[in-house]
Amino acid sequence: MITEPIKTAVIQLECKLSRESGNMRRAERYIKKAIKDGAQLVCLPESFLTSGNILDVTDVAVTIPGECTDKLCQIAKEGGIYLVAGLFEVDGESYFSTSFLISPTGNIIGKYRRVHCFEMERKYISQGSDFPVFNTDIGRIGLLQGYDINFPISCMELYCKEVDIIICTALIPEAFFYVTNQLLTARAIESQCFIVFVSGIGANPYAGFKYMGRSSVVTDPMFLEKELFDFEDGDETMLMMDMDEGYKLIELDIHRLHKYRESNSRIGDLVTSSYLQGLSLNNIEEET
Amino acid sequence: MFKIQDRKPRKAPFKDIDVARAYDLGMRKSALMSYQKPANRILEQAKDEMSDIVEVGVNTGLLSLYIGGKLPDTPVSGIEENKILLEVAEENLNLAVWSSNKGDIEFEGGKFHAMPFEDGSADIVFSFSSLHMWRNPIAVLKECKRICKHDGIVIIEDLNRAAEEGHITFVLQFIKDGGNEFIEALGSSYTPAESRKLLNEAGLEEWNVYQEDLGLIISSKPIDSLSSNLYTEDSNDN
């Protein structure tokens, strides 16, 4: 049973194109600093090693496990932490945008290959097919990536699997900050869990935009209110970083979340037999 | 003639990216020669299997790019406090990467007096044309010592305000753009005697101060090629 809040480090890394070595050096330094500060769970952004260099994915993608994850596993083992990060993954002839979870014993517990990819991305990377949840000593952890937040069904899948913490690694263009921030709050309320949105910063000179940064941690405000009785609007945003590189440590009270869900979970009210049955894009088109 | 008798600390320059880009272009057009000797001094200190070379104050990144290109297997990490200069340095590094520079170079923002490197992690710590901008030079000197390995070396080069006037006029004739920038930097630079005092106050009495042409060189260990240029309390400091 989890009784103490989980010290979680959000590393907002500047992810620089074609700068794998430098990105790794800085990431490594922040992870070690977080370990020193007592973090139990450390999170890095999506494609932290290469940035969103999708045009060169065939050159920059790495295997999982591989050299990069071996290094991260070693650091996680030395520090006794859970670690989440995103990479472009190559598996045979296929490429994915993948997040993975490493255990304090230095093993890869599992990975998530991003399911939702927009049209241009699908020319370069393949889509994943499921939304796994991993049972750990610090709670049930689900992984998502930035674009998934646009699809309520992503979080709903994880909610049905009783996720405690959704770690959403992200590299989202700055223009989508406002919308993404709105969606994150809604997804956290819908899913009655914590969402750790760990976002990269930096410029993508290929595409001419900057990544949004503003990493955040959001949760369902109702469970805060239930316990504290002093909830004020906005409390659901437990952390919001700015646009600078750095890391923040925050405590996630999984025990309190569980207590709230024991009596207030909506999972029992779901009517899964009525959702998306026989629904396909073709059906929608026919009906309209 | 140049009215640089008294040191005049500079206000933070380069608040505008276009000014910084113009300065960078000026350096590339007419002042690359000034990088040659410092670069060679750093490269002379190179050993096999170094873990890191750190530049304190990367400016627009030119010297780190050169060193990184010459030592492609050694990580080179540059720290810069001025965000505008750092942005120009990143532009230069991106172009270098795009042009297939083989160096393992990384630039990042950070405070010189609290650099993000572990104790004893760098084989060479160097700085070029940055000392005169340091707000707390004593703290930065101590920080340079902290991050440098015991068998490593710290080399800090800057303009010498006590340089002979002939050197100043000689250099000025080659500077096509940025003459004012140069004079301002010179006026805010330290003399060898002032440098010695900074070192003593930082508890670095064993470090050395050299003067060469227009330059001032501080090193944590003796540099053989500069032995005849060593500054001592008895030297003439103008």
UniProtKB/TrEMBL annotation, chain A:
UniProt keyword annotations, A-Z: Acyltransferase, Lipoprotein, Transferase
Coiled-coil boundaries: none
InterPro entries hit by this protein: C-N_Hydrolase, C-N_Hydrolase_sf
All copies of domain CN hydrolase, residue ranges: 6-238
Entry's Gene Ontology molecular function annotations: acyltransferase activity
Protein name (record): Nitrilase/cyanide hydratase and apolipoprotein N-acyltransferase
Automatic annotation (TrEMBL), chain B:
CDD domains attached to this UniProt entry: AdoMet_MTases
Gene Ontology biological process terms in this record: methylation
Record key words, sorted: Methyltransferase, Transferase
Coiled coil, from the record: none
Highest taxon of the lineage: Bacteria
Pfam families assigned to the protein according to its UniProt record, in alphabetical order: Methyltransf_11 (PF08241)
Entries under InterPro entries matching the protein: Methyltransf_11 (IPR013216), SAM-dependent_MTases_sf (IPR029063)
Residue intervals of the Methyltransferase type domain: 55-156
GO molecular function, one term: S-adenosylmethionine-dependent methyltransferase activity
SUPFAM superfamilies, per the entry: S-adenosyl-L-methionine-dependent methyltransferases
Protein name: Methyltransferase type 11
Lineage: Bacteria, Pseudomonadati, Pseudomonadota, Gammaproteobacteria, Alteromonadales
